[in-house]
Specification:
The protein contains 10 helices and 10 strands. It is of the alpha/beta class. The strands form 2 sheets. Strands 3-2-1-4-5 form a 5-stranded mixed β-sheet, with helices on both faces. It has a 5-stranded mixed β-sheet with strand order 8-7-6-9-10, with helices on both faces. Helix 5 packs across helix 6 (181-190), helix 6 packs across helix 8 and helix 8 (230-256) packs parallel to helix 9. Bound molecules: 5'-O-[(R)-(carboxyoxy)(hydroxy)phosphoryl]adenosine (KG4) and zinc ion. The site of 5'-O-[(R)-(carboxyoxy)(hydroxy)phosphoryl]adenosine has 19 residues, from helix 5 and helix 6.
Amino acid sequence: MTNFILGLETSCDDTSVALVDRSGNVKAIETVSQYKVHSEFGGVYPELASRAHLEAILPVIESVMGTARVATSQLAAIGVTRGPGLMGSLLVGLSTAQALGMAWDLPVHGINHLRGHICSVDLEVKRLKYPAVVLLVSGGHTLLAYVPDEKTYELMGTTRDDSAGECYDKVARTLGLGMPGGPALDRMALTGNASIKFPRPMINSGYEFSFSGLKSSVARYVDTHEGLNVNDVSASFVAACIDVLSSKVLRAVQDKNPKTLAVVGGVAASPQLRSRMQDISEQTGVTLCLPPIKWSTDNAAMIAMAAWDYIDQGIITDLEPRPNLSLDQA
Ligand code: KG4
Ligand code: ZN
């Protein structure tokens, strides 16, 4: 029985390998994070990222297959991220997948990382129903999309500068909270008072985002206030960021009247964002689809899940790395 897809994700700084069955159950998953490798640079250093993927990927595959006690004869296919992402990092995943596909005589599907994030809501429980509005908020991307059916992805708006996750990470760095910034900021914000009025860039205009002004405003505040309360700055920043995200999501839901609202990507691990999205769901009646928190950030389970969908829909892709792949391309 060919029960599982082996998913590989190496687009940025996580080497992740997973085995996922057709119903979205995750049989096994291991993710090796490179935060320590990049922490001294304050961001992901591409050359080091690909080298770290190269070191990690084969042992992680062996470990996942071994702990799950899955034989290669039980695999239906391999799904691997082909973009968007860092060229060198993508190449490690793609060349590994092609070599294993040849050795094990398996089809290999190149997957769009952004579509993988959307598929994360169908892990464990099938949640997504069409038409859907999607908010994707990660370190690499911030976008709103309308997905009328399983094959059509319409970009409503994206960011003009920083992504929301990038903004979280940079503000966390300004506050000396280290990497990864999002979870640390969220924790600090929980006990803070959102009393500082940071700007809410472009909150009333369309579906485009802009976060660099908010980031600079926090940096200016930190530079000019001695003995500031880090919890209050964190809470005020998170409030500004989530106000912007939620006002646009609310407008998109009111405009498009979708069946489901999916909120995906690393920042979707934020309890504050989750709770605000729940408010929108209650206010508008749209069904909210969130991935399990552990699969909001980059992981190979969502890539394997997307590969099952590509197979079902007969989507054929090549296995070239596509650093700038957009949501409307498979
Ligand atoms: O989806 P992801 O793992 O990678 C990309 O595709 O970019 O997202 C990573 C981003 C980072 O910026 C990280 O700070 C943010 O997600 N993040 C969070 C939380 N956990 C991760 N942001 C806010 N709250 C969190 N709990
Ligand atoms: Zn991602």
